[in-house]
Amino acid sequence: MRTEDLLAAIATGLWRWDSVSGAVTYDAEAARLVGLPAEAVTLPEAAARACFHPADWLEVKAIVQLAVAEGTLAEARLRIVDEKGTVLRTVRTRSRPIARGGGEDGYYLLGTLQEVPDPLPGTSACGPPITGDWRRNREAFLLDAGRALAEAMSTAEVLRVAAGLSMPGFSPDGLAVFGVEGERISVIGHHGPRAGADRPLHDIALSTDHPAAEVVRTGRAVYLPTPEEYRGRFPAAWSPGRPRIRRSWAFLPLIVAGRTIGAWMAGFAHPVSFSPDERSVLTTIARMLAQALSRTALQETERELADGLQRSMLPASKPDIPGLTVAARYVPTGGGLQVGGDWYDVIGLPSGRTALVIGDVQGHDVRAAGIMGQLRIAVRAYASEGHHPDAVLSRASRFLAGLAEPEGPDGRYDPRFATCLYMEVDPVAGTLDIARAGHPDPAVRLADGTMMLRPTAGGLPLGIDPDTDYPTTRVVLEPGETLLMCTDGLIETGGHDLETGWDRIRAVFERTAAPGEAAVPGAVTVADVAAGAMAAVDADDLDALAESLIQAVHGPPSHHTTGHLADRREDDIALLLIRRDAEVCLVGPGTAPVRRTAVTVAQAEPGRIAEVRQQLRDMLHDWTDRDQVESAVLMLSEMVTNVLVHTDGDALLVAEVSGRHGTRRLRLDVADSSDALPHRRRPGELASSGRGLLLMEVLADAWGVDPRGDGKCIWYELYEAGPDGRPGPGTADGPAPRA
Predict the structure, then answer these.
(1) What are the pLDDT digits (tens) for 562-615?
(2) Host H or E run for residue 89
(3) How far apart are CA 431 and CA 448, in angstroms?
(4) What is the pTM of this model?
(5) Sign (positive/negative) of CA torsion 183, 186, 189, 192?
(6) What are 436-495's pLDDT values in tens digits?
(7) d(C-alpha 738, C-alpha 735), whole Å
(8) DSSP string for 591-640
């Protein structure tokens, strides 16, 4: 007897489904069972689908996908309906997926169809129905689980998410994830109040008789619904205490791109039959878990490589400079890489001095990091040869310009430039010789907490013009003062420009309290309040100050200080803080700190008068009477302009604020090399000059002209009004003699 005749005799039909073409083939008995004429037929998938109840068709599709993933049989019950949707009969199908040959994708599904007898009264033929609520709950759970696993940024986070999964209808009591390394597997994460009982040796061979090892070897899931089945299939892995702890286990492969990277175990404290729906949920979770683990492992590898590259390009240890305290930070914030073009360096010089360098190569990619490494080595080499700051930057610019040259007549290149600030430090004298190549100016926190920018001469960024000159500016760092060197990421990150970015940094700087003192009155700004009124940082703790600067720009407080340039992306941050130790400064108890700044305005740089005016405003930012501030700025402009117009030399300006808040004295000296003393004139109504001394007579509390051996010095003083409205202590002996 033929097989077809035998199957027809027991009312069993054969069917075949091609997953690639979608064609469904029935023999005569199978066609009769699905409501078609009793003859062999091949139908497209849409026509075959019309014979089944829509809900059952969706369910069988999911069961088939699970069978394909596990390599097992697909079993389901289907309701056959007519054109009006009336149920004609119920059939049971059992089928097996068979891979297509010849390296083709897809599979054939071969199976049987058999009619299910009508149920007896009071019984159900189809068993517990799969309701819409179950499907909705399962879909919502898988959606939430997928989103949580996709958002995990590390292997530890992925394991925490997996441990917190609460599956609909059956929640695991314990979980374990096994990783593969060579021919051995080990537990890389586990969870559960009694997870230790299911945890094998940390390192076992793949040939071991253990469910996880078999799953990794075969790539097929292992379901153990009872302790008896566990003990029977894997006696070597069985332990006597296991039945009292868990009743069912599921071991599933973690597969990515056809490669098994590990296994996932879900243990249950109650018996689980592992129905097709339950296996489908577990299989889907295993796929998402495998993808998340693969992604985070790759990210962690890239992060480790980037961190190692960055560490190799930064100083190996905290610099130790006698007489100076130094703190440094590097924070990669822009783009997806954790390495960029920002760097800093501390270089010991042959003269015994120390060079501090900070720079920023254009871009945030691997090429920027590579150029940064080459440029850092070149600057270190030129500095170690003993060149002065201007020569170091000139040579570095020629070096960087040479990197951009094409290799052949048709060669292509990606030219890059870099900004740099190079500083040679003499800690004994407190002098800083600074050369600047398109980089932001340094800022200084004075002994009383006031932050001021220190404008310095500079040239073009490195690599633009190989023949650019870089003038050197000498700055004196007084005992107790702190200097900040930073890249533009610290200033502009968060949508800020140079002006608003420096204002944000100033709010942090001026919250810094001097040892034993509170924060300077008037230093807390609107930005300070918006940032959460952070507590003042001890001025002796430069590391805490560096961390406060980073947090204000890149931490939670930065969300309250977003700039007006909302479309500006983030950038890397590098910063160096240098404080000249205050132990050598002889300041008696109760003595108020002094603010002091000195600036030279050359004959060829009249435009620097605007910078000097801004520096004076910064010094007097908390002065009680704002009208006095504007008077001070006006007199400064008159004095410096008088030197540039009526002499052939440069103007040397020294401004000093002394005393305590509310009773302070401002003294401003402008010296030049000319012996000609100013004299009072009587300008006409339309005259454009000749009113400088008249203004000082009206606006200054005291002023004068002091002849010197190499020129003269014209000065004035302003006294901050005290609480009672009287002049401060600086006027106790009356105004100084006038010229």
Answers:
(1) 766 665 556 788 899 999 886 544 444 445 667 888 888 888 888 888 888 988
(2) strand 87-99
(3) 20
(4) 0.56
(5) positive
(6) 999 999 999 887 778 888 888 889 999 888 888 999 988 888 888 899 999 988 888 877
(7) 8
(8) PPP-EEEEEEE-TT-TTHHHHHHHHHHHHTTT-S-HHHHHHHHHHHHHHH
